[in-house]
Structure to design on (759 residues):
C-alpha cells in the first residue's frame, strides 16, 4: 500500500501541497482530480521520488520511501509512471525501450527477447518492434508507453493525464486496455486527470485537490451521489 | 508569415557585396592567366613541406577537438545535473577562457614556458603545445553547446529512465545520446576554429596553413600561392560545416529562454571532491594562470597608467569599430535569419543557410587578402582607406554567429504568433517591428555581443586590412610583442580581458532582463 502522510511542498515560497494524506491499496485505482495548479502532478512526482516533500512522508508497502530527511531513489520504489507527454526516448526503437527497462530485472538475453515480444503483443504492437516513437501514431505511442511502464512489473503505476491528447475512439480503446491490464496485474494506480469521463470509466476512488489541499477522498460511487462541495460537483459533472 | 520579396533582394545584395565578393574574387583569381599553373609553380600541395603543413594543421585541429571533447561535455554534465560543490561559480569561471582571445593564452603559455623551462612537462613550441593552448581557449565552446543540449532534453525523458535505472545508466543510455548532436556540433566548431586559427600557431612558431598563407602573401607577395594553400583548408572546413548542419538538423544552437538548470538529480557523494578538484585544475590552467602571469609581468600600477595613456585612443577605436561591426553584422544576420527560418521554399532556405555559414570555412588571413584585392582600387579607395573596410571584415568573418543566434531564437517563436498579427495589419514591417523584433530581442542581444566580443579580439583579418594610421588593441599587442615590450603587452592584454569581461557582464545583465521579459518569467 502507498501511504502519503501529511505531505507539504513549497516552490519558492509558494505552497504547492499542504497536509495531504492519502492511501492507495494494491489493485485499486485512485483518480486524483483538481483544477490546474492544484498540485496533482507535484503529488505524483513526490510519490515517484523526483521531488522531496518539505513535510510529511511517503511509504510504499511498509518501507519509508520519502521523508524530508531521506529519499529512496526512484528505481528502488517498485513504481512505474506514464508521463503526460509520454517521455518516450526518441533515439530508441520500441523494442529497445523495453529492453532497456527489462535489463533491470532480467539477465538472460533470450528471456528478455521473449518478454519484449509478449509485452508488445499485450498492447497490440507486435509489428512495431523496430519503429522509433516518431514513426508511431498517437495511440500507438500511448500503448508503447504503457508497455514500457509494465515492463518493470511495478507494484504501483502512476499516470499523469495519459489520455489527454487522444481522440475519443482511441481513448475508449486505451481505457479498456488499462482495465484489462489492471485486472491481470492487480497494480495500485494513481491516475491524475481533468476528465470526468475517464474517472467514471476507470476509478475506484477519487481524491480532489484544491490549491494544494485535499478536499475530498471518497469511493467513486459515494462521491457521485454526494459530491459534498461545488468543486467536486463541477469536476465530476454531477 | 512569408517575408516580402524586397527582403530577399536586400539580404542577397549586402551579402554578395560584403561577404561573398572577397571570397569569390580569391577563388576566381586562380583562373587568371597566371592562376593555378602559376600558383603551382610556387607551391605544390603534395611536396614534403606541404604534407608536413597539412599534418600540423590537421594534427592541431584534431588534437584540440579531442581535448575539448574530453573536458567540455563532462564539465557541462557535472555543472548542470549534479550537486557539484560551487557549481554556479564554477560555471561562470569555466566560461571565462572563451572570453580571453586565443593569442593571449598563447602569449601567456609562451611566457610560462620561458619561466619554467624544463619544469614544464610540455614543449609549447610544438604541435602538442598548440593543441594544449587551443584546448584551453576553446573547451568552453563545447561545454556551452553541451549545456544547451542538456537543457533542451525533456526532463521526463531522464526521469522515465530513473524509474528503472540509476544515474550512470541514465547518463549513458538516455542523457548522452540525446545531447550528442549538440556536443558533436560544438566539436565541429572547435575543429574549424582550430584549423583556421592564425594567432596561436604564429606566436608558438608552429607551421600551419593559416600562418603559411600569411607568410606567402606578406613576405613573398605570392597571392596565388596563398590562395592555393587556402583551398584544402576551405574544402575541409566547408565539408565540416555541412556535416555540422546535418548533425544538428532542426535543433537550435542555443536554448534562448534558458533551460532547467536547477534540475540536478545526480548526487555525487564521495566523488564530489575529485570532480571539484578536476574542475579547479581546468579553471587554474585556463583562467588563473593567464591572469596571474599577465599581472606578474605587467608589474607596478604605473605600468598600467602608462599603457592607458599611450593606448586609450586604440581602446576607444577598438570599441567603436567593433560596435559598428557588431551592429552591421546583426542587421545582415537578421535579414538572412528571417529568410532562412520563414521562407516557404526549402531550396531558398538551404541556399541562404549554407551561404550564411560558408564564411566559417574561410581562414581570416585568406579573407583579408580577398578584401585587399576587392577594395584596394581607385574606385573603392574611400572604403579601403576608411574604417569601413575593417567593419566589412568583421561582418564577413562573424556573420555566421549572428545568423545562428538569431535563427535559433526565431525557430523558437511560433509562426502562428506572426500570423495572428498579420490578421490585424497587412504591413509586414509593422509585424516585424511590433511583434517579431521584441520577441527576438534575446537572440539579437546574443548575436550583438558575440560579434562585438569576437570583433574586439579579432586579429587575422584586421592585421591585413586595417587602414594606415589606425590600430586596434589586438594589433597593438601584436606589434608590441614583436618589439619585445613584455610588460606593456601584459598590461594591455589584461586591459583587453577586463574590457571583454565587462562587455560580457553587460551582456549577461541585458540578456537576463530581455529573456525574462520575453518568456514571461
Amino acid at each position: 500500500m502507498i501511504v502519503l502522510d501529511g505531505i507539504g511542498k513549497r516552490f519558492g515560497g509558494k505552497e504547492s501541497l499542504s497536509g495531504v494524506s492519502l492511501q492507495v491499496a494494491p489493485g485499486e485505482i485512485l483518480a486524483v482530480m483538481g483544477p490546474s495548479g492544484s498540485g496533482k502532478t507535484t503529488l505524483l512526482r513526490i510519490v515517484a521520488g523526483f521531488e522531496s516533500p518539505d513535510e510529511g512522508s511517503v511509504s510504499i508497502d511498509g518501507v519509508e520511501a520519502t521523508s524530508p530527511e531521506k529519499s529512496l531513489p526512484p528505481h528502488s520504489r517498485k513504481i512505474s509512471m506514464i508521463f503526460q507527454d509520454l517521455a518516450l526516448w526518441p533515439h530508441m526503437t520500441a523494442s529497445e525501450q523495453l529492453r532497456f527497462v527489462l535489463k533491470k530485472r532480467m539477465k538472460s538475453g533470450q528471456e528478455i527477447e521473449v518478454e519484449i515480444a509478449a509485452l508488445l503483443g499485450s498492447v497490440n504492437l507486435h509489428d512495431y518492434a523496430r519503429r522509433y516513437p516518431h514513426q508511431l501514431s498517437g495511440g500507438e505511442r500511448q500503448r508503447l508507453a504503457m508497455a514500457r511502464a509494465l515492463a518493470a512489473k511495478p507494484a504501483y503505476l502512476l499516470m499523469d493525464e495519459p489520455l489527454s491528447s487522444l481522440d475519443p475512439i482511441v481513448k475508449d480503446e486505451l481505457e479498456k486496455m488499462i482495465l484489462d491490464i489492471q485486472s491481470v496485474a492487480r497494480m495500485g494506480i494513481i491516475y491524475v486527470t481533468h476528465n470526468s469521463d475517464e474517472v467514471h470509466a476507470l476509478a475506484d476512488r477519487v481524491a480532489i485537490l484544491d490549491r494544494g489541499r485535499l478536499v475530498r477522498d471518497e469511493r467513486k460511487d459515494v462521491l457521485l451521489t454526494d459530491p459534498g462541495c461545488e468543486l467536486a460537483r463541477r469536476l465530476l459533472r454531477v | 508569415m512569408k517575408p516580402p520579396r524586397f527582403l530577399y533582394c536586400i539580404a542577397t545584395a549586402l551579402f554578395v557585396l560584403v561577404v561573398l565578393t572577397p571570397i569569390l574574387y580569391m577563388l576566381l583569381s586562380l583562373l587568371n592567366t597566371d592562376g593555378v599553373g602559376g600558383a603551382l609553380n610556387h607551391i605544390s600541395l603534395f611536396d614534403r613541406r606541404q604534407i608536413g603543413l597539412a599534418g600540423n594543421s590537421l594534427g592541431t585541429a584534431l588534437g584540440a577537438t579531442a581535448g575539448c571533447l574530453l573536458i567540455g561535455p563532462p564539465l557541462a554534465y557535472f555543472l548542470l545535473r549534479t550537486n557539484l560543490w560551487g557549481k554556479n561559480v564554477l560555471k561562470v569561471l569555466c566560461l571565462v577562457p572563451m572570453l580571453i582571445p586565443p593569442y593571449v593564452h598563447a602569449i601567456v603559455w609562451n611566457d610560462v614556458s620561458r619561466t619554467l623551462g624544463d619544469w614544464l612537462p610540455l614543449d609549447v613550441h610544438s604541435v602538442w603545445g598548440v593543441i594544449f593552448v587551443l584546448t584551453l581557449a576553446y573547451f568552453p565552446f563545447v561545454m556551452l553547446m553541451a549545456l544547451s543540449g542538456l537543457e533542451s532534453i525533456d526532463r521526463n525523458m531522464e526521469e522515465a529512465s530513473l524509474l528503472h535505472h540509476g544515474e550512470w545508466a541514465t547518463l549513458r543510455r538516455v542523457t548522452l545520446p540525446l545531447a550528442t548532436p549538440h556536443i558533436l556540433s560544438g566539436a565541429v566548431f572547435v575543429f574549424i576554429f582550430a584549423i583556421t586559427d592564425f594567432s596561436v600557431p604564429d606566436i608558438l612558431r608552429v607551421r600551419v596553413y593559416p600562418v603559411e598563407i600569411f607568410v606567402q602573401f606578406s613576405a613573398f607577395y605570392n597571392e596565388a600561392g596563398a590562395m592555393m594553400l587556402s583551398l584544402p583548408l576551405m574544402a575541409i572546413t566547408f565539408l565540416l560545416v555541412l556535416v555540422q548542419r546535418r548533425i544538428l538538423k532542426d535543433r537550435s544552437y542555443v536554448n534562448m529562454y534558458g533551460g532547467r538548470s536547477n534540475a540536478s538529480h545526480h548526487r555525487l557523494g564521495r566523488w564530489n571532491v575529485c570532480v571539484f578538484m578536476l574542475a579547479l585544475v581546468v579553471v587554474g590552467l585556463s583562467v588563473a594562470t593567464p591572469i596571474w602571469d599577465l599581472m606578474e609581468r605587467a608589474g607596478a600600477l604605473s605600468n598600467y597608467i602608462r599603457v592607458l595613456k599611450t593606448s586609450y585612443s586604440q581602446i576607444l577605436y577598438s570599441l567603436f569599430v567593433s560596435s559598428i561591426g557588431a551592429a552591421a553584422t546583426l542587421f545582415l544576420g537578421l535579414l538572412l535569419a528571417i529568410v532562412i527560418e520563414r521562407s516557404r521554399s526549402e531550396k531558398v532556405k538551404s541556399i541562404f543557410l549554407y551561404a550564411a555559414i560558408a564564411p566559417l570555412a574561410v581562414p581570416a588571413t585568406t579573407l583579408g587578402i580577398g578584401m585587399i584585392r576587392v577594395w584596394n582600387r581607385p574606385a573603392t579607395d574611400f572604403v579601403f582607406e576608411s574604417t569601413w573596410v575593417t567593419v566589412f571584415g568583421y561582418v564577413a568573418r562573424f556573420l555566421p554567429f549572428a545568423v545562428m543566434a538569431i535563427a535559433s531564437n526565431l525557430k523558437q517563436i511560433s509562426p502562428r504568433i506572426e500570423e495572428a498579427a498579420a490578421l490585424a495589419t497587412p504591413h509586414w514591417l509593422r509585424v516585424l517591428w511590433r511583434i517579431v523584433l521584441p520577441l527576438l530581442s534575446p537572440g539579437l542581444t546574443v548575436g550583438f555581443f558575440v560579434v562585438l566580443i569576437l570583433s574586439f579580439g579579432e586579429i587575422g583579418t584586421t592585421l591585413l586590412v586595417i587602414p594606415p594610421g589606425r590600430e586596434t588593441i589586438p594589433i597593438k599587442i601584436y606589434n608590441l610583442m614583436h618589439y619585445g615590450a613584455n610588460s606593456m603587452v601584459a598590461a594591455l592584454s589584461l586591459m583587453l580581458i577586463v574590457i571583454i569581461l565587462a562587455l560580457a557582464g553587460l551582456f549577461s545583465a541585458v540578456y537576463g532582463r530581455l529573456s525574462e521579459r520575453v518568456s514571461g518569467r
